[in-house]
Amino acid sequence: MRLRTDDDIYRARLVYLGPPGYTLPVQLPYAQYGLFIVLVPLYMGLHFLFAQSIDPFPAWEIALAMVTTSYIFRHVDPDRPARLVIRTALTDWRRSREADRELVEPRIVARRIVMRRSIT
What's the pTM? Predict the structure, then answer.
């Protein structure tokens, strides 16, 4: 008897569990594998641009790709896909600047004054 999860979102994530009968120790969605595969050559290209050399085993690039993938997917949920998280990170990085001086907005505070008749 196979037990199926009753969580529809979990089933919709398209998780690769491994070969039949032998599950993997971690459950990653296919999107994480794809992003990792895209990031490793990207980091290798950046390393080549700065160092002008190619390593036989790209350990730092693999580590950076793993950290970047886990950081991106920490913010992914059913309402916010990975594509939107990456786009938001790129646009916020380019457009967010500290203000030269702090702008204080004036506030109007209204107080309620209650007048009572004295019973004397």
Answer: 0.61
